[in-house]
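Hi W.,

Here's what went into the run:
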Amino acid sequence: MNDARSALVLFSGGQDSTTCLAWALEQFAHVETVAFDYRQRHLIELDQRLVVLSEVRRRFPQWASRLGEDHFIDMGVLGQISDTSLTRNVAFTMEKDGLPNSFVPGRNLLFFTFAAAIAWRRGIRNLIGGMCETDFSGYPDCRDNTIKALQVTLNLGMDRSFVLHTPLMWLDKSETWALAETLGGPALIETILDHTHTCYEAERGPRHPWGNGCGTCPACALRKRGFEMWRKAGKA
Ligand code: ZN
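Here's what came out:
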């Protein structure tokens, strides 16, 4: 059955999922990771996540022994059926229904469902994702109630007792930086700044104080603003 000491992290290689990975490595004895290729425009995140994983192993010996297998799932079919600015080369805008056109319908529902299927096979109980309701773009599948309902659905549908954790749910971006500092100190902050990928435009670009990226897409803007707020709060 599911081992309560084990966890599987949805790990895309961005700031949020790297913070979630550190959170899981502090809590659980055995932590595995999973990533999805859904033909996102910023496929570069899938290269960066391997760099982050190797940096975590190198810089955090206390976590390295807990870090287990990495899983990679080809979900190209999601890219095939999604007409969004994350999966097509179109500009980021808001739609009439108030959602940004970067919303990929079903994405997080599928991610957790596939993660649960892996966890089922691996005997893992805890699933961890970086969904956040505080600073989010209005994606309905990042809401706390969506994730809670999904936990019930997965447990009914797979006859297991998975626990879905979303440690960033009620944090804003500046609090996410603060959490990373608490978990892994300056070494984790440096790892996140130097190696995680957030930019929707898939640009690594020059290294800004808040990390790499185009600096103007919605994901970069959020990361930059959060970083500046966190820095300011630290100096106050
Ligand atoms: Zn960007």
